[in-house]
Predict the structure.
Amino acid sequence: MAAKFERIELLDLSLVDPPREPVRKLIDPEYIRELAESIREIGLQEPVKVRPQDGRYEVVFGHCRYLACRLIQEPKIKAIVKEMSDEEVLTARLVENIQRQDLGPMDVARCFGMMRDKLGMEVKDIAKKTGKSVATAYKYLSLLEIDEEAQKALSLKKVSVDVALALCKIGDEGTRRQHFLWAIENGVTPALAERWVSDYEKTKAGKYYSEGGGPSIPGPGMIPEPIFHTCKGCRGPVESRDVRFLPLCPNCVKELERR
C-alpha cells in the first residue's frame, strides 16, 4: 500500500468543510470570538489538518480554528492535507480530542462511545488506545445512558461527573430525571447523591419507613454539611437531612414541575 504523505497548502476557505462528525457537541462562541481576534492580529499560528473529499476538503483537526477563520471571513487557510480513510479520521480525531485538557466529560464520553459503536472497539482496547484505565473507560461510557437534559447539565458543569454517575443508578426514568433537576437546582455532593439513590431503593422495596410508621433516621456522618433544597410542594427551603422521597408516577412528577 502506498504511503500517505502530508503536504502543507494555502486553501481557499470556501472549499473547506467542517467535520462531518464533530467530537465536541458544544463549542463556546466566546472562545471562537477570542480566537478569531487573535488570528486577525497575528495570523493562524498552527495550521488545521484536512483530508481531500470529492474536490473539497474536510477538517480533521482544528475545528475551532476553522470556525474562527470563517468568523473573520479569511479568504485562505493554512492546512496540512493528507489522504485518510473514514476509520483513520475518526480514530485520530477521537484520540487527539480525548488527550486535550479542556475537553468536557460528555465530549469524552461521546468519543468513547464512537470508538465502541463506530469502530467496534472493546472497552479494554479503548482504554489502551487512549491511555486511560478500563475503569475510567467504563465510567465515561456510563454517562451516555443519562438523559439528554442531564448530559447538557454535565457539559455546562451544573453537576459533577460523580453525582451524575450516582444518579444514573436510579432505574425509573421519571424519578431519575426529577433527581437530576433537584441536583441542578440545588447543588449536591456525591455522598448526598448516593444517599438519594439509597433512599430511592428503599422506597422501591417498601423499606423506607420504619415499623413504627415514622421515617427511617440516617446514621451519623451521612451528611457531611448542611445542604438546603427547594420543597416541591411549598417551594420553601428544607435541609437535606429532612428531605423525604415519595414514589410518584410520571404524571405527578410533571405536575410538580409545572407548578
User: Anything to note?
Assistant: The mean pLDDT is 80. Residues 146-258 form one domain.
